[in-house]
Amino acid sequence: AQTVTQSQPEMSVQEAETVTLSCTYDTSESNYYLFWYKQPPSRQMILVIRQEAYKQQNATENRFSVNFQKAAKSFSLKISDSQLGDTAMYFCAFMKPVPYSGNTPLVFGKGTRLSVIA
Amino acid sequence: DARVTQTPRDKVTEMGQEVTMRCQPILGHNTVFWYRQTMMQGLELLAYFRNRAPLDDSGMPKDRFSAEMPDATLATLKIQPSEPRDSAVYFCASGPTGGTKTGELFFGEGSRLTVL
Q1: How far apart are CA B81 and CA A10, in angstroms?
Q2: How far apart are CA A13 and CA A91, in angstroms?
Q3: B111 DSSP assignment
């Protein structure tokens, strides 16, 4: 079974600074997807960024980027120019897709609570 | 914007009562997931469906929980009888059929259940 570990329960960062959230995972699969989800106080789960394991290029979405190290099974999230609205829980998640059938359940880490300080 | 709709948003009930949570997945999505979120356990999968067929409900306490998809526009999660340890936020998520859209799960806003 796959496992996802987020070793930082809480982090804080000054507004406009950069912060990196860590995530490691364990799997014997070669093809899979990795995700970062954001959960603000409103509790809505919002997809931040998605990485396909067969793509070597790291995914980026505006101020959010990942450092995907497949051999090390590491998938960290970097948030640049942090904003107050980035304050939230961040969850790292793993999915093993089924060919031609699409999505299977996400396996989530325990989350990292990020506070952006003015 | 298409979105997953969950009801109720918040529910307070007494131990022993039946609770039904409902989810309307995004039209055209063929997979539906139920997750439970607690401080201690984080996000746990309870059940999931593909094309309305249940594929995995191993995370669900079978004696009191049941999940169904009576049609493509409705998924339900029922707890009978409810217990204080069931207090949690329950999320429904839906996802499209594979291809380039694989992995794009959309979550509802969750139903916060408090059992007294």
Answers
A1: 36
A2: 17
A3: E
Dist CA B114 CA B85 (whole Å): 9
Please give the sequence-ordered ranges of beta strands (E in DSSP) within A6-87, or none if there are none.
10-14, 19-21, 24-26, 33-39, 46-52, 60-61, 64-69, 74-79
Residues from A contacting B (CB-CB < 8 Å) are 33, 35, 42-47, 50, 52, 91, 95, 97-111
Cβ contact B90:B35 at 8 Å: yes
Predicted pLDDT at B100 = 60
Of A103, A105, A110, the CB nearest to B45: A105
| CB-CB neighbors (< 8 A) of B109 in chain A | 42-44
B97 touches chain A (CB under 8 A): yes
pLDDT digits (tens, 9 = 90+) for A94-105: 998 777 666 888
Residue type, A30: S
